[in-house]
Amino acid sequence: MASSTMSSDTNQTDTDQDFLQKHVAFFDRNKDGIINPWETFQGFRAIGVGILLSTVASLAFLSTWLSVTLLPWFVPSKFQENFKNYAHTYPDALTSDELSEMLKAKREPMDCIGWIAAFLEWKILFYMYKDVNGLLCKETIRRVYDGSLFEQMDKERQSSKKKA
């Protein structure tokens, strides 16, 4: 598989498919190579999302995942371009308004289901991972793409359960 090198501020060298595989592997709870809505729900619960939001997120995630399997998943140049075009306040983070601006600009005409799925996925991401200043950092988003953030959150949650 050919490697595609990312820019130095993403600290990752991988192939686009490897990013998708890493991202979705977290949600393949039984490791059978197939992700169903129940496993997606369990994955969201594992990272601490509530029942209602996990249900909504799993449906949005599933529809988004089905559509992106036909399209490139992580393209480093487009990732950088999004921050260049929409991160007006800070170069390596998005505010809620900047995220909304990006979502609106990237809508596909007449794809209401896609709009809703993208909105839910990104706003849930923002809600869960914004920093104390209300910013969604570039590195956090990159870690969502490669799945490493999910693994970290699951481990932290399991660790806190053991302490309790």
TrEMBL record:
Pfam families, per database record: Caleosin
Sample GO molecular function, one term: calcium ion binding
UniProt entry keywords in alphabetical sequence: Membrane, Transmembrane, Transmembrane helix
Transmembrane portions of the chain: 46-75
Domain of life according to the entry: Eukaryota
Family: Belongs to the caleosin family.
PANTHER family: INACTIVE PEROXYGENASE-LIKE PROTEIN-RELATED, PEROXYGENASE 3-RELATED
Protein name: Uncharacterized protein
Source organism per UniProt: Dipteronia sinensis
Lineage of the organism: Eukaryota, Viridiplantae, Streptophyta, Embryophyta, Tracheophyta
